[in-house]
Automatic annotation (TrEMBL):
Pfam family, one: Interferon
Taxon lineage: Eukaryota, Metazoa, Chordata, Craniata, Vertebrata
Keywords: Antiviral defense, Cytokine, Disulfide bond, Secreted
Name recorded for this polypeptide: Interferon kappa
SMART domains: IFabd (SM00076)
Amino acid sequence: MSTKPDVIRKCLWPACLVGLLITGILSLDCNLLHFHLRKVTWQNLRLLSSTSSSFPAECLSETKAFELPQEILSHTQPVKRYIKEAFYEMSIQAFNIFSQYTLKSTWESDYLKQIQIGLDQQLQYLEQCLEEEEQEKEDWKEMTEDGMNWSGALVPQLSSLELRRYFNRIDNFLKEKRYSHCAWEIIRAEIRRCFYYFQKFAARLRK
């Protein structure tokens, strides 16, 4: 599960015009990042809801707890950059999961493509804003070296690691179930839960 952002864009380039109809054209103003992330995440939630009317009763016995790392939200509250890095990691990992989908009869392929386009747009926006903050990050490191408390310095690495482990559990579940209909229905519900959770991240960026 290590698809690179540039590879993602190459795969999605033929569908870019469709993406413009979904999210509209937004200027890459980092002051509006929270608005863009909330909009795209909400659209993806709606698209996931549209792929299935209800959870199949026959799949209830196969449900599993994937342990979405809830503590990330409290860890990342002090530094907005960490929130963006967590959003970036989630976008890549979610895209990789959706790239494995093959059961066209279960999820509408058009909806899936739109979700992938939205995730790719998030990645582009986040890349720009993270690059713009690079100097700010260096300045912050210098301040911590002058004696400030820097106990949160490892939070980005820990958050990314926790998210990767979470998505690895999802990926392993799909493989164990051989990408069955029920496995995808369970993952669809789980990633909806993940997207709802990340809506809270976007709200924190506005503060």
